[in-house]
Amino acid sequence: MSILYLATLIVAIGCMVLIDHRFRLLFWRDARRTMIVLAAGLAFFLAWDLFGIGLGIFFRGETAIMTGVLLAPELPLEEPFFLLFLCYLTMVLITGIERLREHQSAGRS
Q: What is the C-alpha separation between 13 and 39, in angstroms, rounded?
């Protein structure tokens, strides 16, 4: 039993928060809307996982770096943190790219 994977996910989420704060992309622009979109994405992907687990499609990949704690059959503790990171990363990337494109087009005018 190890918390290495969980700790890495938490650090990665923290890095996304720092990038978000530095460039005022999401939470520091509209925290309420960001929380709604992030919660919706997390809920969607957790439902997707549970549906896949119920159908016998998804299985837990047990490794030495995981805690071994299960939230449900075949759903490890680390999965919601991974999904949160995935959703937040996508939101930061899309918003960052949009902001960069706006900045570049404003420079050309």
A: 15
List per-residue pLDDT tens for the chain, 109 residues long.
799 999 999 999 999 999 999 999 999 999 999 999 999 999 999 999 999 999 999 988 878 999 999 999 999 999 999 999 999 999 999 999 999 999 999 877 6
pTM to 2 decimal places: 0.93
Please name every residue paired with 105 in a beta bridge, in sequence order, or none if there are none.
none
Residue 70: which domain range? 4-96
Whether residue 106 lies inside any domain: the answer is: no
In-domain check, residue 34: yes
Question: Where are the strands (E) in the chain, listed by range?
Answer: 70-72, 75-76
Residue of 74, 102, 96, 103 whose CA lies nearest to 26 = 96
Tell me, yes or no, whether 63 lies in a domain: yes
